[in-house]
């Protein structure tokens, strides 16, 4: 009697194990994932119609129907535009290889006028100065001599005097937008129009004005040394 019970027990165990093992191989019963959108979240554009990633059925969320299915709402009345002058440069967001970086840097030296309205120049320079003091002077110094507070403290070095560099308003704008060697990009801190205002301030305060921009002949003089080894460069072109 005892022997038979043991045999039944063994058979049950073997059949049971086989059943479990084989059933997990079946294509019809793939492993379950509860709440798949928690494990595999779907990035979606809040201003576009929301798509259901796991089924083909139409997602009609009543609250958003009048918004074309978008869950995000458009800007409310009175929203302040990020780029009121329309000066945003889409290329500022482009990842560049060092060769491209140098090519565009050289080209930027040819730009000797800002796209800002010359009628507002005095106001633009005043704002440029404020932003320069807030954003750049910690390194470059209020006098543009490369002796900002963090340089004087000894925490950072290698900041040039503007007087020692070949600059045009275009190249200052390019460098503050894309960075250069150990200087990072400040595009994230300054709005498109303000980038030109800071450049305008630097040219008028430290380089004797826009018209005093050096000849283009020297354009290749500076980048060649620092940028010679593309792999080692840290121009931080990806924004
Ligand atoms: C963290 C310190 C730091 C800050 C902040 C900084 N810079 Fe620089 N900047 C540097 C360094 C270092 C260099 C030298 C880069 C090189 O090797 O050519 C430099 C170089 C420059 C040059 C010369 C580039 C050339 O073509 O030779 C310009 C123009 C310039 N910075 C503008 C700015 C402006 C405008 C700001 C503020 C928006 C700013 N920098 C903020 C560190 C800084």
Automatic annotation (TrEMBL):
<keyword id="KW-0732">Signal</keyword>
<keyword id="KW-0349">Heme</keyword>
<dbReference type="InterPro" id="IPR009056">
    <property type="entry name" value="Cyt_c-like_dom"/>
</dbReference>
<dbReference type="Pfam" id="PF13442">
    <property type="entry name" value="Cytochrome_CBB3"/>
</dbReference>
<protein>
    <submittedName>
        <fullName>Quinol:cytochrome C oxidoreductase</fullName>
    </submittedName>
</protein>
<keyword id="KW-0479">Metal-binding</keyword>
<dbReference type="InterPro" id="IPR036909">
    <property type="entry name" value="Cyt_c-like_dom_sf"/>
</dbReference>
<feature type="signal peptide">
    <location>
        <begin position="1"/>
        <end position="28"/>
    </location>
</feature>
<keyword id="KW-0408">Iron</keyword>
<feature type="domain" description="Cytochrome c">
    <location>
        <begin position="123"/>
        <end position="206"/>
    </location>
</feature>
């Amino acid at each position: 009697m005892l022997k038979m019970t043991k045999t039944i027990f063994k058979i049950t165990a073997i059949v049971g194990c086989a059943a479990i093992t084989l059933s997990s191989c079946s294509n019809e019963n793939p492993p379950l994932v509860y709440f798949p959108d928690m494990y595999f979240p779907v990035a979606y554009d809040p201003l576009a119609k929301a798509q259901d990633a796991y089924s083909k059925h139409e997602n009609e969320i009543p609250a958003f129907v009048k918004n074309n299915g978008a869950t995000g709402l458009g800007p409310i009345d009175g929203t302040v535009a990020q780029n009121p002058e329309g000066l945003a440069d889409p290329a500022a967001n482009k990842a560049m290889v060092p060769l491209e970086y140098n090519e565009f840097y050289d080209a930027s030296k040819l730009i000797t006028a800002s796209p800002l309205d010359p009628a507002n120049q005095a106001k633009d320079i005043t704002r440029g100065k404020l932003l320069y003091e807030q954003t750049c002077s910690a390194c470059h110094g209020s006098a543009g001599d490369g002796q900002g507070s963090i340089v004087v403290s000894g925490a950072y070095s290698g900041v040039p005097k503007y007087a020692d560099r070949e600059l045009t308003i275009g190249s200052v704008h390019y460098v503050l937008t894309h960075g250069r060697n150990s200087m990072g990009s400040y595009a994230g801190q300054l709005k498109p129009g303000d980038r030109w205002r800071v450049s305008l301030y630097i040219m008028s305060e430290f380089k004797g004005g826009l018209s005093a921009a050096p000849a283009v002949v020297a354009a290749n003089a500076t980048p060649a040394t620092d940028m010679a080894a593309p792999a080692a460069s840290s121009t931080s072109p990806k924004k």
